[in-house]
Amino acid sequence: MNIPFELQIGWRYTRAGRSGRRNGFISFISMVSMLGIALGVAALIIVLSVMNGFQKEVRDRMLSVIAHVEIYQAQGEALADWQATAAEARRNEQVVGAAPFIATQALIARGDDMRGAIVRGISPAEEATVTALAAQLRDTTLAQLVSGGWGIVLGGELARGLGVKVGDRVTIVAPGGQFTPAGVVPRLKQLTLVGTFEAGHFEYDSGLALMHVDDAARLFRVAGPTGVQLRLKDAQQAHEVADEMQLRLGDSVRITDWTRTNRNWFQAVQIEKRLMFIILTLIVAVAAFNLVSTLVMTVTDKQADIAILRTLGASPRSIMTIFMVQGAASGVIGTLVGMGLGLLVAFNVDVIVPAIERALHMSFLPGSVYLISHMPSDPQSADILPVVAISLALAFVATVYPSWRASRVQPAEALRHE
Q: What's the pTM value of the predicted model, to 2 decimals?
């Protein structure tokens, strides 16, 4: 193969340098630079993959409990005809399920214990077409919710916090009071706990209660369902579908989607992800620019070689290319090793992290503090490719100045002391 001599010599310089005290030191610095680049790239890929996994896990668990899109009366009153609203919504090809609901905040008490919760009135049959949790519990727990039965289903953490089990009675303190000759008194209603659920999302497991929509309407004194919740084929299209429906249904209703409801959380995750990307990229940059010192020492050590090459007719551009190949090769090797290591760890986080937790007898993500209790990972090419490109670009930029200095070496000056 007719390989340009610049590539051959540059690659030879990359592999050589282990004989002699000075050359051995240069080789050691080069290895440290490659190792730094590899560790920086691996850290970036692992951290971004874990953050992607965390976001995906929380989003999936969240969407197993809540609807993709919600339509409700602007004044907070009951919809005039929720069936007509649902039928109009189904005209959008993205909509695959619709169900009525009533949602409000209330206090749930058991003895001296009292917890605030979101109480959602649902129709069990229709709800199963909207949320994965309802579909899972339709024939078991939710089947116990019947109109007039005054039953309630609590999140597992909420039930444990109140110290109740199936069959126990709990008291709901409804918002707003009732007027009596003695003044305004709170409206109380006792309900029977007919079941619990575990969504795997601490916020909902500890703060959500379900009851039949008819019972909720009587308890909270509304004429009927206050809204309709929808399930879409593609949850990522929720924002566009909500905007389209708002234009079609007008200002008499308010329409929101899951991305707006949880906007602060998702924005916080994105900001944290960008900051981690910047911080870890600086680590890669420091390692990449260690190549500068490696190449400077190599150029100083190879003064005689440069002079001989120039004497044999090599142009300054060829000399510059030789040392750029050497530096770029170190950057490419470090980047590829880091990418391989990062992907290896990212795809096996579910095995590595539990092993570390068992060895250290500790839990990195206690369920009582975080939304999930295990370390997820979701490597995405949209994150990995920019990391690799930035690492290669930094390594390339780091080689420019030392290589340019090598091209400026004068043969006569270099050979004077040889």
A: 0.73
